[in-house]
Amino acid sequence: MTVLILTSEEDVTADLVVLRLNEAGVPVVRLDPADLTTRVALSGEYVQGICHGHLSVADRLVSMSGLRSVWVRRPGLPAARAAQPSAWLTEEASQALYGMLRCTDARWMNHPDAARRARHKPWQLRLAQRSGLPVPATLITTFPQAAREFSERFPDLVVKPVSGAHPQEPPRAVPTSRVAPDTDFAAVAFGPTLLQRRVPKLADIRLTAVGDRLFAARKTVEPDADPDDVDVRFSPSLSPWNPVEVPPRVATAVHAYLSGAELAYGAFDFAEDADGIWWFLECNQSGQFGFVEMDTGQPIADAIARWLASAPDGTPAPSGGTRRSAL
Amino acid sequence: MTVLILTSEEDVTADLVVLRLNEAGVPVVRLDPADLTTRVALSGEYVQGICHGHLSVADRLVSMSGLRSVWVRRPGLPAARAAQPSAWLTEEASQALYGMLRCTDARWMNHPDAARRARHKPWQLRLAQRSGLPVPATLITTFPQAAREFSERFPDLVVKPVSGAHPQEPPRAVPTSRVAPDTDFAAVAFGPTLLQRRVPKLADIRLTAVGDRLFAARKTVEPDADPDDVDVRFSPSLSPWNPVEVPPRVATAVHAYLSGAELAYGAFDFAEDADGIWWFLECNQSGQFGFVEMDTGQPIADAIARWLASAPDGTPAPSGGTRRSAL
């Protein structure tokens, strides 16, 4: 049974996971859907009620029924590197590849449907509430009057995009920033705006979930930090990420979130306040983990390799490899 | 409890359903997401574990918690008609609108996740096989050699796109056509190609499923029809669509398909052969039904209105309208 990794060639984080799977003797096929019709070929046959599918990568042939798991890491746009790329060819290649992979019994990290749903911020906030995670008061609105009333109730606000990254080429992350006290919010009418009570934070928390395993890391906010530096991704802080224990109530809520979202992987961002409460900010279903592993030494790549290698019921892979014990 | 219909203003088929809902006294809000930030506004608040959402259309305010059902008919691209449209604004508006609607308990026809998944042809074929529908032998491939071998086993083939419509502006349907006997299939290497055994058909069947209700219509192939006219959408036939009974085995299989696909609506295309077998060609989760209703008189719009108006458990709407009995 083979692990399929969909990602670009330059993805060095994926290299870490591939290395561990190789050490464990678990067969791995790594491909970039951008290479479809050049380095990558596919075929699926439906005859007399039976379906057979194959993938070929650099002349290596893999049966789709032999796929143990699929890791959707950083896949390129299907057929983007074809001799004559086009929107039509990308659509055809995407439907063929993902349509066939959807027919397999492989486990997904993460399934494309779950991944797509999990990107919706309003849905994230609601699921976090329902899962028992503390969510800072939030408003998403195109009504200037609603924004004004919200800012009266919660005078210290941050603003962030509803959707995450700006869809330019390459996509650019839009930072969260503080709302000035004299803002009049008239511009809210021109586009949905996400306003959130600013959590005065002592630390940022990044919790990486891999299946049932949780790895939390904490980055202290420096005492003289500028309160306008609300977005840890853009803050000039030099303090490292340190491993931190996950409070049991948070762990229970995070498991409920992942189960409700049908996600096998998630990178949660929290803000820790002076009372030690972890406030849910977001869960990125494809969040990076390399920087956390580098700072903390937490074995996240190893956990991903184990998850990908394990059987559908979660037991370790009955691999034929002699070095299986490495996992 | 309100029915929300997402579609364009020009959608006359939706008018039929709105008319029936109005007659039954069921509140309806119809909006085009393209009108977001101009005619349409939205707001969602997440405070202390509770979520409240509102939509406003032409100054009419609707609570999202009061939505009974959502009919995704022919919605425009979110914020496409904004004063300054952009890919970024569309993404923000789309995430805000669909993200909030995903938080409601409304029933969907069809849910966006189910709709997206249902467009994958390879997945359709597999689900049809699993549901017990006869599927003509099919190959989807980028291997010329696989195509050649397939054409030796099944010499009479048609070719059609994997993905359906060509993504130009406006999208254009690509007809299914016959494969010439001397085709060498070298070009298959440049893009996934769907080859399918041609079913020598006596009739085309369009089966429209609305919840549990099935409406089948049959269009006879004229005896002197050109066998190269394989695609009913492009055939010059003048024979009308006539109502036809659904064979019990087909009905069971179609219900299994809809349940597996989590679809509340589906338009199935079959080819009927000389033995009376209905061969599954595809299921379009947003297929048109107006032309069938016009020819056959089958009450499809009425069935959609009833489905949208019914409570989550399928019982008719406890509407306050005095003309409820009209449904």
From TrEMBL, chains A, B:
One example GO MF annotation: ribosomal S6-glutamic acid ligase activity
Domain MvdD-like pre-ATP grasp, residue spans: 2-113
Domain of life according to the entry: Bacteria
Listed GO biological process terms: SOS response
One Pfam family recorded for the sequence: ATPgraspMvdD
Entry GO terms, CC: cytoplasm
Annotated Gene3D superfamilies: ATP-grasp fold, B domain
NCBIfam families associated with the record: GRASP_SAV_5884
PANTHER family referenced in this protein's UniProt entry, alphabetically: BETA-CITRYLGLUTAMATE SYNTHASE B-RELATED, RIBOSOMAL PROTEIN S6 MODIFICATION PROTEIN
Protein name per the record: MvdD-like pre-ATP grasp domain-containing protein
Lineage summary: Bacteria, Bacillati, Actinomycetota, Actinomycetes, Kitasatosporales
